Amino acid sequence: MGETVYLNGAFVPIEKALVPVEDRGYQFADGIYEVIRVYGGGPFRLKPHLDRLERSASAIELSLPPRAEIEAAADELLRRNNLTEAGIYLQVTRGVAPRQHLIPEGIAPTVVMTARAVSAPNAEIWQRGVKALTVPDGRWELCHVKSVGLLFNTLAKRQAHRAGAFEAIFVRDGIVTEGSSSNLFALIDGVLFTHPRDNHILAGITRGAAIEVAEQLGHPLREEKFTNDDLRRAQEVFFSSSIVEIVPVVSIDGRPVGRGVPGPVTLGIREAFEALTKKE
Ligand code: PDD
Q1: How much is the pTM?
Q2: CA 72, CA 46: separation in Å to the nearest integer?
Q3: Are 45 and 204 in contact (CB under 8 A)?
């Protein structure tokens, strides 16, 4: 059976799910999205994801379908594709209009949702950890909006990949912000640091869960800015995202983090996070 996707209220085979060439998402990256993990058939932390979608939408004055409609569509999409361990991609773009910069009033948004199986996340990257590359954060000032305008992020990811690294770490004016598709935590002198929630990072749902878990485990944690120099002397570093969950970083720009192996604080948080995904 082929893959079914959701498009503007209908469930259609993926090859028939077509969007007009003048959709503003295509021409202007005028749209927002969410990526939601599904464990055991249930979307993980759906409410915070939909809250964030609403914040993104209101930041760009985009109208959304009613929340109940999105929730029902997500359930139905999982059912139709027979998925239990999955990732849902939900995208809302401004809609279709003749190309012009001025955002037209009153056009209907284009709503797309896909769901794909996610293989049990790669145990190797958790056990061995990954390499990272720092790159200047040249993104715009609205990084809290989960915009489909991801060209800067994708170029950074490619740069990291070409350097043999798993992920890029953005540095803005000397301050470590986040990864190209993840948030970042660093254990510095026994305190876990992560960039505060502001317009320079995306407030990750996994970041939120990692903070909860770290606090439950009794780790001192500060949502405060830290510098690239601080990062270089961190004992442990990890990325968080809905897709990679919690991933230890064992080398940055070719230099080992701590002793160059995943550290106990990261592994403890990873384990507790995994337990949380099973519990919820
Ligand atoms: N990205 N920061 C950025 C820039 C991201 O793109 C993401 C996630 C995160 C982590 O957010 P969350 O924990 O809610 O997944 C942080 C998704 C996975 C993506 O674009 O595919």
Answers
A1: 0.97
A2: 12
A3: no
Q: Pick the catalytic residue: 146, 225, 278, 279?
A: 146
Q: Residue 9: is its pLDDT beyond 80?
A: yes
Q: What is the 3-state secondary structure (H, E, C) of 28-49?
A: HCCEEEEEEEEECCEECCHHHH
Superfamily of domain 123-279: D-amino Acid Aminotransferase, subunit A, domain 2 (3.20.10.10)
Contact 193, 185 (CB under 8 A): yes
For ligand 1, pick from 135, 139, 145, 183 the residue to mutate: most ligand atoms within 8 Å of CB: 183
Query: Where are the domain boundaries for CATH 3.20.10.10 in the chain?
Result: 123-279
CATH 3.30.470.10 segments of the chain: 4-117
The C-alpha angle with vertex 42 and arms to 49 and 75, in degrees rounded to 5, equals 85
Query: Ligand 1, residues 34, 116, 181, 205: which to mutate, most atoms within 8 A of Cβ?
Result: 181
Tens digits of residue pLDDT in 219-269: 999 999 999 999 999 999 999 999 999 999 999 999 999 999 999 999 999
Domain 4-117 is found in CATH 3.40.190.10: no
Contact 197, 211 (CB under 8 A): no
Residue 79 Cα to ligand 1 middle (Å)? 25
Separation of alpha carbons 194 and 272, rounded Å: 18
> Quick check: is 146 catalytic?
yes
From the alpha carbon of 52, which atom of ligand 1 is closest?
14
CA distance 178 to 33: 18
